[in-house]
C-alpha cells in the first residue's frame, strides 16, 4: 500500500495532460489490502487475502458527463494504457448524451490528506485468540482486517487522499436448538481484553436461549434496545430522514419534525462525524466533507446535501454522498450505566437485535419490524426467558421521542460489514436506549 499514493498521483497527472480543450475530469481511487477469514463451529474454515485497486473516471464536457470504472494491475504502463482506453471510450460516448441540468463540478482546488494506518495485530494472533476462547461454542462468523485507501483528483486541481486501517469481527453463537446470539467487535486497535469481554457477554446471553421461549400478547411494553437494535432503527431512518432531496420533495419520514409539527426527545443528539472516522474527508463527487449535527436535542439540524441536490434545489452543499444517508453516525450517550439496564427496565423487553424493518406509514414516521437475536423477557430486573419472534409497529416520534427514557453512557462501535465489490468504511457509534413503551402487534 506504500506505493498507492504515488501511483494515483502519477495517473492523475497523466490524465490532466491528456485532456483536450474544453474537457474536465474527476478521478476516484479505491484500494484495499484485506485479510478475510470465515469461522464455523469456532474453527477457521476459510482464510485468504484480497488486494485490489480500482479507478472511477468521469469525463465532463459541455454539461455532459459519463463514467467508467477500471481495475488497476500495479504495472504503470499497463494501468496508463487502461486509463487511456477508458478516456477514449468516454469521449466517444459523451456526444450521444444529453446535457445534465443538475451537474455540479467543483472548481475549487481543495486539498485533503488523512492517514490512520494504525498497527493491527498479525492475523494469526487474532485467529489463535478467537479459536482458543470460543472453544466448545458453535461460533459462526467473519473477520476482515487491513488498510483501505480512497483518493480523489480533478482537472480543477482538487486532490484528496485517505488511508485507514481497521478490523471487523462479526459473529453469532448458536444454541443447540437453533437460536443464536449475534455480536460484533470492531475498531482500529485490537484489544484482547475487550474481545474477551464481548465474547463473554454473548456467552452469558447464550445460556438463556435453552429456556422455553415466551410469546407475548399484543400491547405496549417497556423495552430496552441494545446498540445493535437501535442501529437498525437509525439505518431505516437514514433512508430519507436526513436527505435534503427527500425534504425538498416532502418525502422525508422526518418531514413533520422539520415542519415544527412534531418533536423528538431532548436526549437525542445525532451527528454525521466525519472527523476521526474511517470516512475520507471528501465525497465521491469531489466536495470536502465536514461534521454535521443532524439532530440537536431532539430538534432538526443540518440535512445531508449532495452536489446534485445543491444544484437542483439551490442549497449550499456539504459534501454528502449522492444517496444522502449518514455514513459515520454518532449518537451522544446518556447517564444510564450499562450494568443498571436490567434493573431500570424492571419488567419488559430486552431487545438485542431487530430485522426486516420498514416503514408502515412513512409520512407519520411509523416503522415496523421483528425482534431477532438475543431478545429476552425480563421480570423484576432478571431475564426470565428468550422472546419468541414478535412484530412491533410504532412511531419514531414515540421511540425516539416521548417514550425515550434514558441512553446508556457506554456506546458500541459498529463498522459496516458489507464486502460487496470492496470493504465498505461506514460506521456507527451508538448507546443503548431505554424506552417507556414499544408497541407489539403480533
Structure description:
With 442 residues, the protein is an alpha+beta fold. It has 2 domains: 205 residues, PmbA/TldD superfamily (PmbA/TldD fold, 2-Layer Sandwich); 222 residues, no CATH class. The chain is built from 10 helices and 20 strands. Strands 8, 9, 10, 11, 12, 13, 16, 17, 19 and 20 form a 10-stranded mixed sheet that branches. Strands 1, 2, 3, 4, 5, 6 and 7 form a 7-stranded mixed sheet that branches. Strands 14-15-18 form a 3-stranded antiparallel sheet. A hairpin with a 4-residue loop joins β14 and β15. The chain is globular. Pfam families: PmbA_TldD_3rd. It comes from Pseudomonas lalucatii. This is TldD/PmbA family protein.
Q: Summarize this, please?
A:
With 442 residues, the protein is of the alpha+beta class. The protein has helices at residues 4-18, 76-93, 123-133, 192-208, 227-237, 244-248, 255-258, 307-313, 341-345, 396-402; strands at 24-40, 43-61, 64-71, 111-116, 138-154, 159-174, 180-187, 219-225, 270-272, 292-296, 299-300, 328-331, 348-351, 354-361, 366-371, 375-379, 382-386, 391-395, 404-415, 427-440. The protein folds into 2 domains: 4-208, PmbA/TldD fold (2-Layer Sandwich), CATH 3.30.2290; 219-440, no CATH class.
Amino acid at each position: 500500500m506504500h506505493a498507492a499514493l504515488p501511483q494515483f498521483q502519477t495517473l492523475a497527472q497523466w490524465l490532466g495532460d491528456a485532456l483536450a480543450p474544453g474537457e474536465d475530469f474527476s478521478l476516484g481511487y479505491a484500494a484495499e489490502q484485506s485479510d478475510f477469514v470465515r469461522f464455523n463451529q469456532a474453527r477457521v474454515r476459510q482464510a485468504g487475502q484480497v488486494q485490489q485497486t480500482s479507478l472511477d473516471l468521469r469525463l465532463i464536457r459541455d454539461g455532459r458527463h459519463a463514467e467508467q470504472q477500471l481495475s488497476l494491475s500495479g504495472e504503470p504502463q499497463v494501468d496508463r494504457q487502461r486509463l487511456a482506453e477508458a478516456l477514449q471510450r468516454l469521449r466517444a460516448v459523451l456526444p450521444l448524451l444529453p446535457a445534465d441540468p443538475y451537474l455540479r463540478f467543483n472548481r475549487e482546488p481543495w486539498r485533503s490528506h488523512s492517514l490512520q494506518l494504525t498497527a493491527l495485530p498479525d492475523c494469526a494472533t487474532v485467529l489463535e485468540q478467537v479459536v482458543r476462547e470460543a472453544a466448545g461454542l458453535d461460533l459462526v462468523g467473519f473477520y476482515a482486517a487491513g488498510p483501505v485507501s480512497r483518493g480523489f483528483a480533478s482537472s480543477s486541481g482538487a486532490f484528496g487522499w485517505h488511508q485507514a486501517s481497521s478490523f471487523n469481527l462479526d459473529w453469532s453463537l448458536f444454541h443447540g436448538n437453533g437460536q443464536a446470539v449475534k455480536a460484533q467487535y470492531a475498531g482500529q486497535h485490537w484489544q484482547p481484553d475487550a474481545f474477551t469481554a464481548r465474547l463473554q457477554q454473548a456467552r452469558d446471553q447464550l445460556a438463556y436461549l435453552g429456556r422455553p421461549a415466551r410469546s407475548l400478547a399484543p400491547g405496549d411494553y417497556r423495552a430496552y434496545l441494545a446498540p445493535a437494535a437501535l442501529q437498525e432503527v437509525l439505518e431505516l431512518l437514514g433512508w430519507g430522514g436526513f436527505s435534503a432531496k427527500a425534504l425538498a420533495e416532502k418525502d422525508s419520514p422526518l418531514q413533520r419534525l422539520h415542519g415544527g409539527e412534531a418533536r423528538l426527545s431532548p436526549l437525542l443528539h445525532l451527528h454525521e462525524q466525519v472527523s476521526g472516522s474511517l470516512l475520507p474527508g471528501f465525497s465521491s463527487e469531489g466536495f470536502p466533507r465536514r461534521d454535521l449535527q443532524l439532530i440537536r436535542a431532539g430538534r432538526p439540524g443540518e440535512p445531508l446535501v449532495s452536489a446534485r441536490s445543491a444544484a437542483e434545489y439551490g442549497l449550499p452543499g456539504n459534501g454528502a454522498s449522492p444517496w444522502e444517508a449518514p455514513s459515520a453516525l454518532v449518537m451522544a450517550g446518556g447517564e444510564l450505566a450499562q450494568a443498571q439496564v436490567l434493573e431500570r427496565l424492571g419488567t419488559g423487553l430486552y431487545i438485542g437485535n431487530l430485522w426486516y424493518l420498514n416503514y408502515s406509514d412513512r409520512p407519520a414516521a411509523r416503522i415496523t419490524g421483528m425482534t431477532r437475536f438475543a431478545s429476552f423477557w425480563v421480570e423484576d430486573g432478571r431475564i426470565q426467558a428468550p422472546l419468541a419472534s414478535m412484530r412491533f409497529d410504532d412511531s419514531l416520534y414515540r421511540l425516539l421521542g416521548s417514550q425515550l427514557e434514558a441512553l446508556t453512557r457506554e456506546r458500541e462501535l459498529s463498522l459496516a460489514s458489507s464486502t460487496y465489490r470492496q470493504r465498505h468504511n461506514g460506521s456507527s457509534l451508538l448507546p443503548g436506549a431505554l424506552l417507556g413503551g414499544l408497541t407489539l402487534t403480533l
